[in-house]
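Q: Focus on the chain.
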Amino acid sequence: MNKKVFVTGATGYIGGSVALKLRQAGFQVTGLTRTDEGAVKLRQLGISPYIGTLNDYEPLIHAAKEADIVVNAADSDNIFAVTTLLTALEGSGKTFVHTSGSSIVGDKAAGEYASKVYHEEIIEPLPEKLARVTIDRTVLAAANRGIRSMVICPSLIYGTGYGIHKDSIQVPWLIELALKRGAACHIGKGENVWSNVHIDDLVELYLLAIERAPAGSFFFAENGEASMKEVGEAINRAFELGPETEMMSLDEAINQWGPEAAHFAFGSNSRVRSTKARKMLGWNPKGTALLEEIENGCYKK
């Protein structure tokens, strides 16, 4: 019998891409959705819908117990959902894959460069990211509770998703603002650097982790890095907006995107390396590089 997978965030960018790829690989996939509309769209992709939310205890317990593998790709910061899913899986030996995000190493640099690169060592995050790191640690510790638990921590994700929701956050938001203002923007000098990963490569990492990763594993996902100024320059070239990017103040960015996104999605450094994924799983990312994708790939459609 094909293994059963329950995916939260199945209508989203990461979860939808992973869910569809798993179905294509022969898994029986059930996806969590809040709405009847989402259920219809999931069925059209060959994914069985399960209507509920991350805050519904009994439905989450039931769905997790019915599955052989649970992939949480809906909300990196929802401790209730994570603890509920872990409760359902405790002692079963089943697989639980939790999705984090590399903003956990963010530094609130406001566009300034930082040289620190993280190699999957123990992280001491800023207070704003402590809750997320605590969830990651809870998932990893569940390996001692009879769960094959693991964490995948993507960096800046780009490229076209496979499922219902096709777009990531950072690059599309930057493009939208650039087209509105007539030039790409970055916070301060824009010298802050983010590692990045193509959605194709990220999805492949999920499949490899499900197949090969030992319990208690943590994997960063990256295949290159670029500064926000370099991203802005690529956007300008792609949309013929001229050679110069524009600086925006942190206050402007907060007004545009809110404090969380301004500080941690656009103003910080988030530099990581996927050493373990490459060595332990044989992950070999091949996706188009970020700046090339912006200039000549999916974003020009």
Summary: The first strand starts at residue 4 and ends at 8. The first helix runs from residue 13 to 24. Residues 4-107+117-158+196-222 form a domain with the Rossmann fold fold (CATH 3.40.50.720). The chain has a mean pLDDT of 97.
